[in-house]
């Protein structure tokens, strides 16, 4: 998955951000399992997904604090 644009994420509601987060966590688990079975050829996906999760969690906490 490519880098998520923060501008696009800021326009989403908290509920939509939770849906995005859930999808990213599923991707992260899938990539982790592929890595452990030797099927993941693009190792950078693990790092990219982890950073995207952090972006979404940060936006959720910002919106919850308002």
* % residues in beta strands: under 5%
Radius of gyration: 13 Å
Mean pLDDT: 93
Task: Count up the domains.
Answer: 1
Q: How far apart lie the N and C ends?
A: 29 Å
How would you summarize this macromolecular structure in one to three sentences?
The protein has 66 residues and is mainly alpha-helical.
Task: Label this structure with key terms.
3 helices, single chain, elongated, 66 residues, mainly alpha
Structure description:
It is a single chain. Helices cover 77% and strands 0% of the residues. The chain is mainly alpha-helical and 66 residues long. The protein has one domain. Helix 2 packs antiparallel against helix 3 (44-65). The N and C termini lie far apart (29 Å). The mean pLDDT is 93.
Helix/strand layout:
Elements: H1 6-10, H2 14-37, H3 44-65
Helix pairs in contact: 2-3
């Amino acid at each position: 998955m490519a880098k998520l644009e923060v501008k696009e994420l800021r326009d989403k509601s908290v509920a939509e951000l939770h849906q995005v987060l859930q999808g990213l966590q599923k991707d992260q688990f899938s990539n982790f399992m592929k890595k452990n079975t030797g099927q993941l050829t693009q190792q950078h996906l693990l790092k990219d997904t982890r950073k995207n999760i952090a972006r979404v969690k940060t936006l959720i906490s910002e919106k919850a604090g308002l």
